[in-house]
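User: Study the chain.
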Amino acid sequence: MSDRSRRLLTRVCTTACLVGLLSLQAQAAGKDGVLDPQKADEDFAYQGEYSGRITEDGSKVKLGVQVIALGDGKFRAVGYPGGLPGEGWDGENTVTSEATRNGHSIVFIQGDGPKGVLTKGKLRIETNDGSVMGTLKKVHRNSVTLGEKPPKGAIVLYGGEDDVKNWKNGKVSEDGWLQQGTQSKQTFQDHTLHLEFYLSYMPHARGQARSNSGCYLQGRYEVQILDSFGLSGENNECGGIYTVSQPRINMCYPPLTWQTYDIDFTAPKFDSTGKKTANARMTVRHNGVLIQNDVEIPGPTRAAPNKEDANGGPVFIQNHGNPLRFRNVWVIEK
């Protein structure tokens, strides 16, 4: 082999190793949890919500689609006739398809039905013969209670870095947000809680390993926090009262989006002997949409740090090994 050929082979191998290393680093970051969109992989740009109108049987109908990144260029698309969850979907019918990205394009095919071609932030819906039914645009939804200011008399648990003093073992991230794995020093009985949370991007993870945390009222009753974007909405997914009640509708936004919980909590009641006379109850709004309506909770949910009794309890934010962020946490006591 000539010197020139050796130099060329060395450059090719070096380039290939560098590309492979960058790919492995992106995969590792996705498995550990990415909190900065600038550090996400290429697939992140395609993940998200798409909405618009298409022509079907001669009529214009609304359609919403959620595109979920599954790692290594793989995606799942969930279609919602009538519009996205909370914006027209009937809560029952969905269409699901999986595909692999080819360069800058993803083609979702569902049997003999229409196909979706996703490129540059637009999802074009076509018939089998290539006729365009319509184009959906990528949308970025915000909760109607996002950034809501605490009303007069509210107890602000976290509004900025100085408020970490209100939390046991509270830690603040470099960007100034509260991290998972902490509980409020103050305890509460009946109250309303406002909390904003930010899920990490973990495309390679699945199920309970995908940006998992939880918000425990009184350290006893958990509203699950999880990247459940595009899932069916079970009692162990985002918005579920863990193992007790599934949300009426899955309102989970894509990861790396600020989301809100507004929870109205009624503590259990006990008589003078310590016997429980009434169970705890909870109403939950996720991103401003009612998903749990005055649900009765028979006892502490699984993995609750506190036992049930007549005493008040803290707001407990679970550390399940995944990075999340929290902000604008406040309570109104009843």
Summary: Helices lie at 3-32.
